[in-house]
Amino acid sequence: MEFKMEDRHTECLVKNRSFLCSKISLSTGLLAKLSESGVITDEHLQKLQNIERNDTTKAAVLEFLTEVLPRRAPEAFNLFLEALCESAQKHIADHLKKSLGDVCSEDAGTFERLREELRSHYERRLASIRPMPWQQDIYLNLTDVFVERQLNLKTNYKGDERIVTMDDLFTPQQTEEIPRRLLIEGNPGIGKSTICQTLAHEWGKQSCGRHCGTLCVHSFDLVLYFHAGDFIAEESVAHAVQKHLLPSDCRITTSELQGVIEAKNVLIIVDAFDEANAGNRTLDRLIEGDILRHKTLLITSRPNFLQNKLSLFDSKFKVEGYDKEEQLKHVKRYAAHQNIASAPFESMLKERSIRDLCSNPLNLTLLCLLREEDTQLRNTRTALYTSIHRIIKEKAAKRLKLIEAEVEESLLRPLYRFAFEAHRENKTVVGENDFKKVKNFQQVCEVGYLTNEVIISRLQPEKRFQFTHKTFVEFLTAKHIAEMDREERLNWMQHLRYANYHIRIGGLAIYDDFNESAELTEMASLVIKETHFSYEHYPISLDSSCEASHQLLRLIAELNVVPPELADVICKGRPPLINIHYYCSASCRRGMLKLCNLRFQPPIPMNVDLRDSRDEERMSFVQKLIKCKSIECAKIWIVPDDHTELWNDVREWRIGQANSVQQVSIHCGYIRGIPCEEFSFGNHLSELQLIGFQPSHSYVLEAALHKPLTSLQLIDCDELDDGCISQIHQLLRNQRQSLQRVQLTSPWHQHFGFFLADFAQMENLQSLEISLNDSTDEEMRSLEAILKRNKLSKLTIDSRDYSGSLYSVLNEGFNSMSSLRELHLECVDIIHLPNLRHLDLINFSLLRYSILNDDGIAVLSDVLRSWRNLQHLRIDFDYDVSVAECSLRKLFEAIAGCHRLQILHFQWLEMADSVVPSVCEMIESLKQLRKFTSIWQRDESLTEEGFKQLEPIIKRNGLNTCMDLTLM
Ligand SMILES: Nc1ncnc2c1ncn2[C@@H]1O[C@H](COP(=O)(O)OP(=O)(O)OP(=O)(O)O)[C@@H](O)[C@H]1O
């Protein structure tokens, strides 16, 4: 890249050319200094030495003066003078300085003194960051923790932007001109001051050597670093320098300062325009170019304080929040600086409850400080937000020169109410009409939770305000809820929609601010009822998720102590089973641990799905559950990355041992190889579920051969080899008496019918799930025996090839299966199974690849009418077959008659506008329905009109809905 030297430097070199050619000695010392500071490259060096050797020193110096130096970075001139001084040619440097002085009449001595004074001031005073300015003892080393920022450069009035790095700050942008007035805008705590501080500090560190490739801060002779308030009551920049940047015994007069500032290439940095913009005459003149027009001025401000001065700026930048990479860099630098492991900080970035905060550098720094200082704080989100809120409040008090109580009373309370109202309408941006009602609104904004936004419409600018983070709206809302009176609060809670709706606001500050536990109990009962906390929850499956019933867990996670009355209410409403899913938040898990401290008799069984996350927090969570007396950690789901991890998990959690978890689900998909050490389960292993089992995992089965299994499940099982088959035969024979549940299923056309003879021997078999394909007559006879024994309560059959004999065995069997409550059929044509209507099912699924044409729907509608106790229904429609609307309507009518239905799941339902009314009627009549899912509406026959009719259903109180629709 070609650079252009400052004109006055070029002039000075031209004027002194013959002097320099005859006086300069290209000594090794000088050349070494020049290359050390980056003024010349190795190539230049060689060239100069060649010229000197083949011609004369004068010729080499001339080459340097005309071809090299003028094309280097602007600061190269000063570096050249420094190199002269340091290589015993100071007299030449002095001559040049004097000559420069002739050009611009400044006192070289004053400039040097001033520069040294400022450099050492910045180097020492700006070396650390103090995130909480009133707590001077908390500081971080700037160079160690600083994360390089990106800036959005506004490229036109419409708001188009381009990303540039900090190195490009002073590079000419739209025109060739070096920008003279620069503006950086950004939200509170986003890092504006830190950018200014870094620039001044960098400059203080003398030259940049070769590092800065462009017009960097080192190209300025002087950097003057101010807070906007420094100009108040100062008549000139020189006065402000004298008062705020120099020691009082420095003895440089303001007129000397004025001379230097005028003569030199100066950068004036002014931070926080928003904090001191009123009546700041000198600063205004500086911005307007009424004074020091040719000097570079960089101003920072929160957004939209300079609205009427925007045209004066050549470059306008915006700093935005950290992206993921910058967040990671921030926490890593922080940890390295504090000399501690970065893992806990990195996992903090993933914690859902605080993830929102992490994009703001101030909040992220506070989170790091809080996490390091007090691990307790991690335990409740309320405590964490309260700490941050306290810091923001103190910062506001300092900025606004008020005492904290005044900030709370006159600014924060109105803000809490304001947030509550915004939250109710699900807004983070508020318009003029909303804030006109609030007294002192401008000051309320300055606290730091709201930022000023101006939407430029061509006709008229519109003023709007935005909350910096959505989670803060929730926190502030909770503060308001805590201040409501009791009746108002209960009334508000009663009208909330709980299902499929995260009332996070409830999860914050409210409880700790209550003294009356009667009210707390009342509220908890309401939440238990509305979120179906006490209902039976279905065991975890791969696609199950954290739902509204966990709301209570998240609420108690926020309590420091659970009062006895509240504990009573929770014990009375205990659910028969609790699931902790992979997607549960840290707050669900903390709530669960609080629940462990209550006394449940008998203990509540719990399933925990850990999947592939082995972070410290989850590991210790499981350890605590295992030890807990009130909870029986029944089943654990793990997805080990390899055999070593599997071995570690089984050992660490003592899987299968008497006093630990005895049911396990292992996802074997990633496990390769065999552990070197012996692999074994404890002697009490009662349930083993293996997903993605392959013959290479047979050592896991081996370890279960002699355990008292009640349940063995091989799901998504690969083709078995002879060794595995005989191992399973042996296992089934060993456990013939104890096994109550077996599953051998595979989506890949596998046939496991050869185990049916073993199953037929099991007297206590209650649940059978199997994939069949091409069964032999003998196998069919075994199946018939199992069905007719009438012991099964659950049956799943998945067959690619329903031979006539399988249909007839099933259809016949249904006549005598009065114990069957759960039936799942895959790839079936239901018209061959009319005897279904003799069953008394609670849970029925017609799964994928089933044939569901108009005839099938007629049979299904018919059988549904006879299942009076049905609670759970899943229908996977056939996406290759279109069905008549009247058939669908009949089906919906039949479902509408299943009054006990709680969960309804449709897959691939073609929901056209015309069937929407009957879907609505169906759901309307299902009073007990609490979950309705309809996935993948492939056809585009649902219009916005139809969707509008569905809306009241989707939003029905107490109904958890999940609809995946495509609108036309
Ligand atoms: N680039 C960065 N690298 C590391 N930490 C940063 C960075 N920027 C900001 N921080 C952290 O965030 C805190 C707040 O940043 P800063 O004071 O610069 O924000 P601001 O935009 O000036 O805010 P306000 O408008 O409230 O004055 C700093 O004290 C520092 O701890």
UniProtKB/TrEMBL annotation:
InterPro entries in UniProt: CARD, DEATH-like_dom_sf, LRR_dom_sf, NACHT_NTPase, P-loop_NTPase
A Pfam family this chain is assigned to: NACHT
One MF annotation (Gene Ontology) recorded for this entry: ATP binding
Cytoplasm is among the record's keywords: yes
CDD domains per record: CARD
Domain CARD: 5-99
Single GO biological process annotation from the record: innate immune response
Domain NACHT: 180-304
SUPFAM superfamilies registered for this protein in UniProt: DEATH domain (SSF47986), P-loop containing nucleoside triphosphate hydrolases (SSF52540), RNI-like (SSF52047)
Gene Ontology annotations for the cellular component aspect, listed alphabetically: cytoplasm
Keyword line: ATP-binding, Cytoplasm, Immunity, Innate immunity, Nucleotide-binding
Subcellular location field: Cytoplasm
This protein's name: CARD domain-containing protein
Organism: Capitella teleta (Polychaete worm)
